Amino acid sequence: MSALEEKTKEVSEGGGFTMLFFIIGLVVSLIFGWVVFPELLYSQKKQPFDFNHALHSELVDEGCESCHFFREDGSYAGVPQLAQCVGCHEDVQGETEDEAIFVNEYVKTGQEVPWLVYSRQPDCVFFSHVAHVKTAGMDCQTCHGDIGQSTSLKVYEENRITGYSRDIWGKNIAGFKTHTWDRMKMDDCSECHVNLGVKQASVQTGKGACFVCHK
Amino acid sequence: MKIDRRSFLSLGIGVTAGTTLSPLPWKLTDDLSIWTQMWPWTPVPKDGEVSYVHSVCTLCPGGCGISVRKVADRAVKIEGMDGYPGNDGSACPLGLSGLQLLYGPTAIQSPLKRVGERGAGKWQKISWEAAIAEVAEKIGRLREDGKAHTLGCITDSDCGTVPELFKRFLTAFGSPNFMRTPSCADTYEMTLKLMHGTDASPGFDVENANFVLSFGSGIIEGWGTPGRMFRAHSAWKDKKVKVVQAEPRLSNTAAKAGQWLPISPGTEGILALGLAHVIIKENLYDKNFVDNYSFGFEDWKDSTGKVCKGFKSVVTDRYTPGYVSGITGIDSGDIEALAREFAGASSPLAICGRGQGSVPGSIHEFMAVHALNALMGNLNRAGGVSAVQRADYITWPEPEPDRVAQNSLKNERADGAGSARYPYTKSLLTRLPAAINSAEESPIQALFVANANPCYTLPDTEQVREAFAKIPLIVSFAAHMNETAEMADIILPDLGHLERYEDVPTPFGMNTPMVGLARPVVSPRKGARHVGDALLLLAKQMGGSIAKAFPWTGYEDCLKKTMGKSWTGLTENGFVAKADYKPAGWDAAFATPSKKFQFMSEACGHEGKTGLGAVAAEGDPKAYPLVLIPYDSMRLSGGAVANTPFLTKTVADTVLTGKEAWAEVNPKTGGKLGLAEGVHATLTTPKGSVRVRVHFSNGMMPGMIAMPRGLGHTAPDAYLAGKGINLNALVGPVADPTSGLDAAWGIRANLVIA
């Protein structure tokens, strides 16, 4: 074998390894990026106790707004405060452990429940519920899905970097969505605003684009 | 096959390709951008229901109505309250930044007992029960020893339920020593007593005046009710009302005035008499008022038949424009022109009380200024000055002091107010330190201090601290740590201004009688109690006739019962005012012996005394060739409540740089002294010496140095302590010969390059 041939062989053998290492690198990083990274990025947090939306929906007359209401000044009350619950929950009802936790740890001590809010947006975003629900006539499901029919609260996944819920980015780590309520990122807001031809200027400032939501 | 360098390179390329094809870099970029734009440690107010609570700001005596915006239970913004009498939506920067006091670190959390040396700041937390029991036991011993009259009390006001509760406590206890912190209200009230014969406070119809002559009053520097004065000042600009400011320094008020008269400080009263001279000489005064409703204008015979010189003779004989010009430094032509302009206006208003009015001032100066209003008949009518009767809603039955208290109440006051020497003065707090220091045993053996900080605000701070050190028991009712609380033996923490109820009666300068309601905006902090409640607890603990004098279950109960039917209106509107109020007409307005307005008062002697020269500044002119004058600024709180961090941030670099204070001098004066802009210099007055930096300002009269009040705190507040110099430590009190009140407008000083 000539020196030249030997060299050629070495190259071709080395070429196989090169490919193998490329594939190893590719596969490992893909697995890391798609599977391990999301696991690392989000911490799993449990709500203070479980809550049955479906059960409560049956007992009220005005759907979601019975508890998640608008105040007189048009501002949105958000997650119910203890005062709203006390009417029925002054004493432990039923036998669930969650009910006992609620009454004993919160109702009796007068401490507000530190609910983890799946849909909390970053503080730089100005979002008006009344503009969407009352003025535009949107229903709750469009953004929040069927949470009202759920019988228990899912695990709250908190982004370790930003501190916001995974529901904002969406469960799908690639950012794909199938329902309107799968994601709550800026693009999702603007997509809808553009599609529906929403006035592209802020009511308060008169400025367009960013200033509609970022005051 | 061999693993070589290329294999690693391709591994790297594979990883790069894989990572790029995974969501990792894109998601991380997004998250990091969110993280960097919303640092998790940046405080964000909680979301919640927005509400407004109407209250009254009690950080200064101005009493502006405020609306506090709340989100859930947290107060987030203070605004001026629309529709509140006077300030009507306006507020000052101290009031606006009041939340920093509410949520700041200086609020006292529980009763404290001093354990270390006095003033060393070593405290032990004690329970309310223990604190009240200890105070009761100690002051109880004073009564047993026949020294009930040695209990003193210092507060910032003498009307309203809280000061009245203190007065009541002292009366039931047996002490006459209730003292109000000094201000120009003292001298104005005495002016009204002597000239109108009424026990009233002055009301200025600033909204309707159409010519304003201010003898050094800081109209937009915090004089009167700040929010109200801002509004009036803006309205004057719109209505083209001329403002003339006579003041040695170009203050903001002077800078925005139509005319600034740089006047030799302390000679303001002389200028007023000079103006009166021109007005009388040229027959420009209101003859109807002067002839029919005044006394002492012309010469008169007293009961012994002696002819006394009237105001007209005194003024025309002596205060010619030339003479006045020589003393005040104002051109005699300007004096004549100003007098004619003043007299030519239909509602000319003359006001005085330097700066924010924190120093009482000379009674003659105030009377001379008030005489100008009287000459124009501008009393008790639109655009003028009126005597506003003191609030009459507190109608508690007189307390019934027991025999110990009755005997004890016969003693003279420790400060000399109301004595044969100063019969018309109600309170002489500035005389108290000297009285204590000169006595072998302090005439005040126990002292209550509420809503006041005398160890900072009184002149000659060193002397005050020395006197306080001699008082065996000091009880402070401070909500926040301050210089006086530091000297206390026991602190019974009061609720902060946004945590408590309090009635705020007609503030100084307001021309309609009214009461405002300060009310809790947020739930009060747990360890503190309303000063009224603390006093009621103490009275209960004392038992006997003292406890009987306080039949209420708590302060809120007391306030509600006191206000009676007004309570509903008070809680609904935030204030009660008599909308149709009109001051008494000239025929019924005056309660002097002559039933007329008195240009001359026997209190000042008949002849010539009105014409006493300017009150001299303390110090030998040879050793101290310059004069130091303190000034007030809207950016600095010189009162009992110290600056908030926000307010200190607004102070200019030529006033305070880091911890260094600046002294303003005229470039001519500075040049003569060999100084330059920014150099360090030693400022010396008879009271002490400090290191300052020099700032050249053409807005200062030559021969003078100006420095602001409100800096140089020593109390443990990281935002304030050690910053600048407390002017009160450099200036001593100068007693007015008639009233005994502090009439100091400055002090002789020297400035030498350091």
Automatic annotation (TrEMBL), chain A:
The chain crosses the membrane at residues 16-37. SUPFAM superfamilies: Multiheme cytochromes (SSF48695). Residues 124-214 form the Class III cytochrome C domain. GO terms for molecular function: electron transfer activity; heme binding; metal ion binding. Keywords: Electron transport, Heme, Iron, Membrane, Metal-binding, Transmembrane, Transmembrane helix, Transport. This is Cytochrome C. It comes from Desulfonema ishimotonii.
From TrEMBL, chain B:
One of its GO terms (molecular function) is molybdopterin cofactor binding. SUPFAM superfamilies: ADC-like (SSF50692), Formate dehydrogenase/DMSO reductase, domains 1-3 (SSF53706). SMART domains: Molybdop_Fe4S4. Keywords: 4Fe-4S, Iron, Iron-sulfur, Metal-binding, Molybdenum, Oxidoreductase, Signal. The keyword Signal applies. Residues 50-106 form the 4Fe-4S Mo/W bis-MGD-type domain. InterPro entries: Asp_de-COase-like_dom_sf, Molybdopterin-Qrc_component, MoPterin_dinucl-bd_dom, Mopterin_OxRdtase, Mopterin_OxRdtase_4Fe-4S_dom, Prok_Mopterin_Oxidored. Belongs to the prokaryotic molybdopterin-containing oxidoreductase family. This is Molybdopterin oxidoreductase. It comes from Desulfonema ishimotonii. The lineage of its organism: Bacteria, Pseudomonadati, Thermodesulfobacteriota, Desulfobacteria, Desulfobacterales.
